[in-house]
Amino acid sequence: MLENLPDAIGHALHGVRAGLDSILFNTLGLRTGMASIKLTSLAFADHAPLPDRYTADGQGRSPPIDWLQVPPDAAALVLVVEDADSPTPHPLVHALVVDLPPGDGSLAEGALPSADHEGSGVHAGRNSYLQAAWLPPDPPPGHGVHRYAFQLFALGQPHAFSTHPGRDEVFEALREKAIASGLLIGTCERPDGSVRVGATVPGDPLVPA
Question: Considering only CA atoms, which of 188, 183, 173 is closest in space to residue 21?
Fold first, then answer.
């Protein structure tokens, strides 16, 4: 996929990014007066690099995710993973999972379907490549650090999602029924010889704690 793009294209698009302000967590307006879900992973710390095994440079399976502090009145949970730094008008969707059971819980490594893995039977929506699967991080060479936003939302009422919902359908359901949210960010970079791993992202906005 994007790993085959010439380095020159990555450099040329270095400042072109969807932006953290465009991810669902920051566009739904749930931060003020809403409950906060604690989202963590045994595989990576917040704002730390994703291990290669979860990217296009490794096995490409979905990482383990854990969550706590889900409101007791939640009816279901929704997981959305977006690349805030994709050189596209909107963040690239890497995973959508709906109808997760309410309450504190987790997704094990490889729970989402991927190219050579069936997953564990979750209700997966469509990623930006129109696949009902985990899309492994695969940033263009030389484009810099990409931030992958793992976002968990609690719905206050049940919602009848389609077989493989897309981002727009999920957004409308969250806009109407979300009562809490949580955010965890993992990073990934495919550098060339002139890009330093761990470099800061141009115009990195402050993400609320």
Answer: 183
d(CA 72, CA 112): 25
Residue type, 17: R
Burial 19-52 (b: 16+ CB within 10 A, else e): bbebbbbbebebeeebbebebbbebbeeeebbee
pLDDT at res. 31: 57
pLDDT tens for 26-64 read 988 765 556 799 999 999 999 999 999 999 999 999 999
pTM listed for this prediction: 0.84
Smallest Cα–Cα separation from 106: which of 73, 158, 53, 70?
70
Name all domains of the chain by residue range, CATH numbers in brackets. Answer: 2-188 (3.90.280.10)
CA atoms within 13 A on the CB side of 31: 11
